[in-house]
DNA sequence: CCCTTACCGATAAAAGTTCTCAATAGCATG
DNA sequence: CATGCTATTGAGAACTTTTATCGGTAAGGG
């Protein structure tokens, strides 16, 4: 299980620890693009002695090794995404949850790079709006 | 000067203070999408007694009243943009500066909304890459 | 099984932001 | 122009999110 993950960590001279695996599983298990604190809460029942610092440390390492992505939607909060395939995000401005949008276009980058001559390594597209749950509660906006 | 700004603040029952005006000018004067601290540093020479809390307070109020936009590119930092016209951003992953990209497409929203049935209020598109200055220094990537 | 060292938990510290509160100053009114 | 109401200010405490420190632990190669 998680052969790619283990191989990539080994290759980078990183050890396979219970905490590291659980942090990764924590992000993967929560489809809601959890914050570090949410990952901590999710892992704690299975690993009651885990430290918040360990969660931060491993989130950072997993991101460095390209096994997780960071996303920045709200002020001051970093969220994590285990979905490495190219995709966009939908951010509900009411409940703050972030969900995946399966579409993606590399063409956007190419046309921008052509127009500006700039060196592009990627792009992020995030839609804002109200998710269906929040639309029911406050149909005002 | 700044008739729209003043009118909008009056309408919202907000007072026109030197500090508030200078905070707005600070964001507008820095084309680099400054953080709160950078706005504070920019305003301080003209208003040596201004408090950092006042800068934060007014950035928040100006955003609430729709006179500034917030953008979230890096981890943990909120940047401000006085350019209210619809546009995208280019984020240099080396020097962390953010610049404006003049293009915009409302069509993206419409097609996404049509496909998903979700209620969309906006979208943010940010390109990552190396700006021309940083490309010269580190042509590695 | 042993040794090296990456990693852990606990905690302090740093960075970014918001809150509290007494004093001040916009500005509407007379 | 003087007065009163209250939104705003400056200073600092407090809070939130994230990173650094450090002695002890355990992963994994030999």
From TrEMBL, chains A, B:
One of its GO terms (molecular function) is transcription cis-regulatory region binding. It holds the Pfam family FUR. Transmembrane segments: none annotated. Keywords: DNA-binding, Repressor, Transcription, Transcription regulation, Zinc. InterPro entries: FUR (IPR002481), Fur_C (IPR043135), WH-like_DNA-bd_sf (IPR036388), WH_DNA-bd_sf (IPR036390). GO terms for biological process: negative regulation of DNA-templated transcription; regulation of secondary metabolite biosynthetic process. SUPFAM superfamilies: Winged helix' DNA-binding domain. The keyword Zinc-finger does not apply. Belongs to the Fur family. This is Transcriptional repressor. It comes from Candidatus Iainarchaeum sp.
